[in-house]
Amino acid sequence: PGRAGTARFLARHNTWGFVATRAARGQIQGMPYGNCLLLSDGPVNNSTGIPFFYVTPKDNTVTDLLKNPMASLTLPEADGNFCRKNVIDPEDPRCTRLTLTGQMVTVPPEEVEFAKQAMFSRHPVVRKWPRSYEWFFMKMNIEHIWLQSW
User: How far apart are CA 105 and CA 102, in angstroms?
Assistant: First the structure.
């Protein structure tokens, strides 16, 4: 219940989010850049509220983050029951959104097993993604939380 409960619900139940960075390449260097990424805040039975990501340096978003780790992550209620049940467009202000800002960091070795459990329990198909893409785990160290809940 309440705002904190709503934020935890969105962190727990979203399987993807929109990550915004500052572009670090080419003609768009320094400009905002965004991309949708799969995420998990822990294994199915152990939600932590900390978003974990399975990423590749071939992704422009990851290239940006490796040069400037500051990012924002927006988790929409688009997949939630309220908007779907009430036939409300996901962009309607009544559909809650959570935006987390902070630093995206490589998961340290002592947390990699947890990150694997977190991602692979929610997204089993990622185990089959091409190994040549040099996948690794990142997480967001949350510094600010903004909940749009009208």
Answer: 10
Q: Where are the domains of the chain?
A: 3-148
For residue 86, the one-letter residue type is: N
Assigned CATH for 3-148? 2.30.110.10
Q: Write phi, then psi, for 61 (nearest 5 degrees).
A: -60, -45
pTM: 0.90
pLDDT value, residue 87? 67
3-state secondary structure of 146: strand
Residue 86, pLDDT > 90, answer no
H/E element holding 84?
helix 81-85
Q: Which residues of 98-122 are buried (b: 16+ CB within 10 A; e: fewer)?
A: bbbbbebeebeeeeeebbbbbbeeb
> Is residue 77 classed exposed, middle or buried when 0-12, 13-18 and 19+ CB atoms within 10 A define those classes?
buried
